[in-house]
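step 3/5: co-fold with alpha-D-galactopyranose
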Amino acid sequence: MNPDAVTSLAGTFAALYGAAPDAYFAAPGRVNLIGEHTDYNEGFVLPFAIDRVATIAIKLQETGGVRRLRVASTQGGPVVEAAFDGLVPESVAPWARYVAGVFWALEQQGLPMPGADVLLDSSVPIGAGLSSSAAIECAVGLALNTQLGLGLSREELVLICQRAENDFIGAPTGILDQSASLLGTAEHALFLDCRSREAVHVQLPLEAADLALLVIDTRVSHAHDSGGYKELVAACTRGAQELGVPALRDVGIERLVEAQQVLAPQIYRRVKHIVTENQRVLDTVELLGARGPAVIGPLLTASHVSMRDDFGISCDELDLAVDTAMAAGALGARMTGGGFGGSAIALIPAARADDVSAAVREAFARAHYLAPEIFSVIPGPGARQL
Ligand code: GLA
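step 4/5: write tokens
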């Protein structure tokens, strides 16, 4: 973040709370290159932290008084204020739960929290499937860990932030988003085994290969604390149970024929996506290492087809974005994130960025869809103190 932005945050903080913040922290959103809905099936994912961040200014309350949490956003709206004791999600506005939930999760862990004043700013578009919520959680988690000297590792913070999301916000998500935000590094994707939680940084030299990664935000927004996501988690759990394995991670491609015979058609298609997607992640990592990013396009597109036809989480806008990008010269394209809206990504030769963007905009206009937001991203650094 540039110094001007920090100065502006400091000014707004002082105007709201009548004092200067103690510190500033930033945590990125993410793009998931490939490996969708595999995280809660204990499989593989390959996200990267993007160069768009949630930033917080924070001041911890002195110990002694009644603990209270105040949260404000640079997007405006009133300061959200909640008494800390007996904090429940309903005590705060939905957007402020991503802040409050991390205080709550740390307390649940047996770590007493002070009250605090927090001001939030973000350049991660909301509802675009780029984990704007995890970015806030991770900025807050890192801030509390650092300012209170809790000594938690980043891997432990991932689980704290996931707990905030699962048990305070109520979205049964995996560890994909928080891992990308806290463990991501510039110029690399994060190859994560969601069972062992082993993470390997895989080079993603887009610029050196004259490539760009476009995000096409369809502006159809999604929410993971609503029905669709929960239903997918339940279908995967059922598929694993019926196949007699702890998680779908344990089902290899070779078992799909048998799976088709024993599972109900809808459960089978979901299982098929997870099983084939895990293999695509492994293939992508192998190809990246052997030949670089220019050759992974077909795997990205195959992942989209699998989400569209088998997992059933795409939508017309995402399909149009992917099909149009491909027709305009993308090497591969897919929806990214939880689905039901949000963003598609397109891997393109850098020189074609304008043409691909124009083609997608035109196609959306012709279909009378909202104008998409299109921008390129690069793998940026993970969460940090500013
Ligand atoms: C959301 C969840 C993640 C993951 C993705 C789908 O982003 O937060 O845990 O399940 O959807 O891959």
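step 5/5: annotate
DSSP finds eleven helices and twelve strands in the chain.
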